[in-house]
Amino acid sequence: MDYNQPPVMRQPGPQYGGPAEAMFPSVAPIGVPPGLEYLTQIDQILIHQILELVRAFVGFDLNIRYEIKNNLGQTMYKVQEENDCCNRNCYGSLRDFDMTFKDNMDREVIRLIRPLRCISCCYPCCLQEMEVQAPPGTTIGYVKQDWHPCLPQFSIQGANKETLMKLEGLCFACKCCRDVNFELKGKDGGKPIGRISKQWSGLLKEVFTDTDNFGIQFPLDLDVKMKAVLMGACFLIGFMSLDMISKKNLAGTLN
User: Is the peptide bond before 135 cis (omega within 30 degrees of 0)?
Assistant: First the structure.
């Protein structure tokens, strides 16, 4: 798969000077959860975290918000963390949470559920996981951390917890001042078929904020439910490891 080439796709509907929002097909394909119809047309997603000024300057954690866009920058979904103040500020990036995805008609179409789990590699019996529901209340898949003493690895699972794909990253120490990539592979490994990337945004932004930009690439014909689960994987990886990488980058720069 050529990661440097933009996907060939037909963008739905013209824009008439208003906000750049993706228009969804009027008729849902068979077997596609409501609100996920547009995912059938794309093989690339951009995830942009919205900067909260209070969080940036005071360091007080707020519920995180994101926008999910196509490769033309058109907004597909708006994402909002649902959590309380105590949980956010006591447990930090380890916290459990629910995260809601709403489409451009303000319908909740995806819900992510992350339980409170240990993040240490010394405790392989209590690894990280995330449940993905679409629509809310209907489980379509899971993201589960695979134990490894050094490398971040995850299983992408279906609704019955059967492993369908793998995500494999490199050692955190190898990712200073550049993009962080997780390669998407089949359940038995082999050649990458996609990628999740955390994009390096420059020294000043990495030092003074912890906002993240992610890119996800996957086969165009991938099951739309698995595309949604991969979005969930992106958020789990972000909370687990990518903030940790930013802190290591900062420490290495200041030393």
Answer: yes
- pLDDT digits 0-9 by tens, 5-33: 444 333 344 343 444 566 566 566 788 99
Q: How confident is the model at residue 205 (pLDDT cuts 50, 70, 90)?
A: very low
pLDDT tens string 88-121? 667 666 778 899 999 999 999 999 999 887 665 5
Residue 197: phi and psi, rounded to 5, are -125, 135
Angle at 8 between CA 7 and CA 13, to 5 degrees: 105
Q: Give the type of residue at 213.
A: N
Q: Which two tokens stand for residue 139?
A: 């489980």
Please say if the pLDDT value at position 86 is more than 50: yes
Output Rg (C-alpha) for the chain, integer angstroms: 18
- Dist. CA 152–CA 205, nearest whole Å: 24
Spatial distance between the Cα atoms of 210 and 31, rounded to a whole number of angstroms: 38
Q: How many CA atoms lie within 13 A of 19 on its CB side?
A: 7
Q: What's the Cα-to-Cα distance from 104 to each of 32, 101, 107, 157, 176, rounded to whole Å?
A: 17, 10, 7, 28, 36
The band of 207, judged by pLDDT with boundaries at 50, 70 and 90, is very low
